[in-house]
Amino acid sequence: MFHIPRRDFIKGSAALAALAVFQSRFAHAFPSRPDETVIPWLDQPAANPVPEVIKNQLVWEDLDSWVTPNDKFFSIAHFDRPVIDVSNWKLEIDGLVKKPMALTLAELKTRPRQNVTFTIECSGNHGFPFFTGGIGNARWTGTPLADLLAEAGVMKNGIEVIFWGTDAGDIVLKDDIRDVKMHQNFARSMSLTDAMNPNNILCYEMNGVELPAPNGFPLRLIAPGWYGIANVKWLKRIEVRDRRFESKLMGRDYVTIREEDHNGETVWAETSVGPALLKSAPAKVSRKDNSYRITGAAWGAPIGKVEVKIDDGPWLNATIDDGDKGKFAWKIWYLDWPAPASGEHTVTSRAIDESGQIQPAMDDPWIAKKKTYWESNGQVTRRIKIPG
Ligand SMILES: Nc1nc2c(c(=O)[nH]1)N[C@H]1C(S)=C(S)[C@@H](COP(=O)(O)O)O[C@H]1N2
Ligand SMILES: [Mo]
């Protein structure tokens, strides 16, 4: 598909060796049993009607490693999928800064390195019948954003940081107050305070190798703890402004509309998709001899515990895979299901965060009164048929 220059190929093979070491360290950090058989869910996602936008969704039944390999990582592209020639590429930092900058990838790589393992989920995940695998966990490497912004020197009136992607598309904005056609780049912004969070990195490596093209080569923002949309890929420019910013992906698409209650009064709230929300999902049911096991993942907030409900039974405590693997990474959990009756069953999971907050049920007003598909963190129920 893409022409890989020989020089990069050699660099790539050293990186692949590093990846092998990295993956073997974590490959077994997963509660699977040797020779188990996975029983596919009865409910399967619908055919993807937008194969150019959403690629490579996670197939939950296949989940068998804590780190998602790069070739199995989902990718989203709302406009085009740019192929960037790094020899002509620079990251611009400008707007309300005292010292505008333009940095090559090599220059960015000489700056301090920082790693974070972060599970990135698209906020549209589970919002559509065809979109249930918009999630993956990777180890991202780059250089801290805050240091660069500090070096550029944000001016006193700078309050908003805009991350511009290279990808662009034609947008028509037509309603009762305007009728505008524009060609706009992908752009998302953050408040200066959010942008200065020391966890944010300008990322050029994913799981120990150069950032793959579908995931933003040569550079993307990784904002741990935020929904996917904040993590701008194919970065071109970082700009500081003195006012709120609303592009298509801030103010129109990726906007959650909820009917909320405020002291008995109904309030219609429209909010731009923001930090990730507490969530879990059953991944698979496996069988070894006659013993069954339910395995799944939980993410979006520091996880305290995970509970599983089979049919209309009680909530049962799942075992969370041990080891502190970082607060931005998903936790893998499992529950043994000793002697299921043959026939159809439902499996539902709910995550509970460290402060006791519970992932909402689908009929909780938080979910039931949400009118848009983004930020769908309601409990996920799957259906399964246990053979007779
Ligand atoms: N430039 C750019 N960045 C982008 C997008 C995009 O279309 N263009 N999609 C966003 C969305 S909606 C998600 S969910 C994440 C997905 O990251 P991934 O493609 O590496 O999985 O990238 C985000 N960053
Ligand atoms: Mo997304």
Explain what the structure shows.
The chain is mainly beta. The protein has helices spanning 6-27, 105-110, 145-152, 192-195, 248-252, 365-368, and strands at residues 37-39, 54-55, 75-76, 91-95, 101-103, 114-121, 135-144, 160-175, 178-191, 201-206, 209-210, 220-222, 235-241, 255-262, 265-272, 279-288, 291-299, 303-310, 315-317, 319-320, 331-337, 343-353, 380-386. The strands form 6 sheets. The chain has a 5-stranded antiparallel sheet with strand order 1-16-17-21-20, with no helix packed on it. It is globular, with a radius of gyration of 22 Å. The relative contact order is 0.16. Residues 1-12 and 23-28 have low confidence and may be disordered. The structure holds the ligand Nc1nc2c(c(=O)[nH]1)N[C@H]1C(S)=C(S)[C@@H](COP(=O)(O)O)O[C@H]1N2 and molybdenum atom.
Instruction: Using the 3D structure, state the CATH architecture of the largest domain.
Output: Alpha-Beta Complex
Strand content: 35-45%
Secondary-structure element order, N to C: HEEEEEHEEHEEHEEEEHEEEEEEEEEHE
Strand ordering within the main sheet: 1-16-17-21-20
Question: What is the number of domains?
Answer: 2
Number of strands: 23
Tell me the span between the first and last alpha carbons.
Answer: 47 Å
Bound molecules: ligand MTE, molybdenum atom
Largest sheet: 5 strands, antiparallel
Number of helices: 6
User: CATH topology of the largest domain, which one?
Assistant: Sulfite Oxidase, Chain A, domain 2
Report the mean per-residue pLDDT as an integer. 93
The helix fraction, in percent, is: 10-25%
Superfamily (CATH H level) name of the largest domain = Oxidoreductase, molybdopterin-binding domain
Approximate shape? globular
